[in-house]
Sequence to fold (352 residues):
Amino acid sequence: MSPKSALSQEVDHLKTKLDSVTLPPELKQKTTQMLERLTRMADFTGYSTEYDRVAHYISWIIELPWDKTTTDRLDLKEARAILDKHHYGMNEVKERIIEYLAVMRLTQNRAESDEHTRAPILCLVGLVGTGKTTFGPSLSEALKRQYARIPFGGMGSARDLRGQSRLHPDAEPGLVIKALRRAASRNPIILLDEIDRVTEQARGDIMGVLVELLDPEQNFQFIDHYLDYPFNLSDVLFVATANNTRNIATAVQDRLEIIQMPSYTDAEKITIGKDYVLPHTLKEAGLSADNLTIDETVWPKIVRPLGYDAGIRTLERTIEGVARKIAREIVEGKHEHFHLTLENIKHYLPTY
Fold:
């Protein structure tokens, strides 16, 4: 098979996919014209860098969820149960989400309501390990929406969010459009993770893009430089996280509902350790509840083996370390069941 016929087959495949998707009329016309150009290039010019750029652009246009949405689950009791299943406490966050679902239920079927219900843009602010990032997937399960995460830590250019013009070599869309493609839905939950941790030199430009993303008066026509065509983000439910608000521009904060994530008390950590972390860790380590039981008097030692920690990262690492040691001893044939007490716990806790 000659390279030319292979290109023609590729163009035919793109045409079939283009015919099967619904695009905005202007973009449909533009993409169709580009496809005709691609056909001529395949027939007469053969493969070239320009051919690759045009084909790559058309592929991106076809793969984006221009008209694909998911149906929200608006059962308040079910949503609360799912949020409680994954997170202990965090009542202010949960209550705000339940309120939002209640408003959606009341407005979704009203014929006189011409506007979308504007979602709250929550920003969870707290120390490392307080559960900020993990709230995104839990919210996705509760609402039955698709989920995508955009990491801001170390981001050094607004182009990371907005993409780069196709005139540049190796240009691609920005992280916002990539998140939508991964989610394959126009109304996903997108977690803007650690928005306070962008580089200092790019902070102003990135905060400017964030304002556009989060402002309902602007985000219905978000422009990615690579696509060069507005994408409607008004149905996206954005959730942001930050360690603190000092490095978040005032204009961005004005568009956020700041919710402080409190540090966990030792009593709360014990509950989280027993009811959330331990069952998950046992499963991940190939163990069952029959392999390991822990005496109630031991939990304060597990919660604070080396000192105070605001979040639960140390708690998770400690329990994971215990599970690994138990797994090893089971494989070595020492025992099948272990009961941890104040007398033997020192053999399983970190000593550094």
Notes: The chain has 13 helices and nine strands. The first helix runs from residue 3 to 20. The chain has three domains: 3-63, 76-260, 266-347. Strands lie at 122-125, 147-151, 189-193, 222-224, 229-231, 237-242, 257-260, 292-294, 338-340.
